[in-house]
Amino acid sequence: QVQLVESGGGLVQPGGSLRLSCVASGSIFRIVAMGWYRQAPGKQRELVAGITSSGSTNYADSVKGRFIISRDNAKNTVYLQMNSLKPEDTAVYYCNADITTYSGPRNYWGQGTQVTVSS
């Protein structure tokens, strides 16, 4: 059984920073891509940033230049450094990963962590 557990969310003032972490655990053979999505109230879930096993990254236009995604393959962990936060970044942030286990490849989601940007 694979689990993705996020941490690091919270309340921050506009212009502030937060760092999200997501750890994958279980009987993991290989983690291919990892990423962060977010969902604001009344809106669809959207991709924030993604990173491949080789370190290639992609970002939503709305976060380019402010957010940085990284990963530690030895720790099965992906991070999202969020800087210059804006109220419109308020959302539940979800970790996502393509993971291969004994059962084969599958896509997994974390439970989500709330990020609130407000003064």
Radius of gyration (Å): 14 Å
Task: Calculate the terminal CA-CA distance, rounded to whole Å.
Answer: 40 Å
Overall geometric form = elongated
Residue ranges: pLDDT <50 for 5 or more in a row? none
Contiguous helical run count: 0
Question: Could you explain how this protein is built, in words?
Answer:
The chain has 119 residues and is mainly beta. It is 0% helix and 58% strand. The protein has no helices and eleven strands. It has strands spanning 3-7, 10-12, 18-25, 30-39, 46-51, 57-59, 67-72, 77-82, 91-101, 104-109, 113-117. Strands 2, 4, 5, 6, 9, 10 and 11 form a seven-stranded mixed sheet that branches. The radius of gyration is 14 Å and the shape is elongated. The model has no long low-confidence stretch (mean pLDDT 97).
Q: Top keywords for this entry?
A:
119 residues; 7-stranded mixed sheet; mainly beta; elongated; single chain; 4-stranded antiparallel sheet
Write the layout of secondary structure elements.
Elements: E1 3-7, E2 10-12, E3 18-25, E4 30-39, E5 46-51, E6 57-59, E7 67-72, E8 77-82, E9 91-101, E10 104-109, E11 113-117
Parallel strand pairs: 2-11
Antiparallel strand pairs: 1-3, 3-8, 4-5, 4-9, 5-6, 7-8, 9-10, 9-11
Give a brief outline of the structure.
This protein is mainly beta and 119 residues long. The chain is 0% helix and 58% strand.
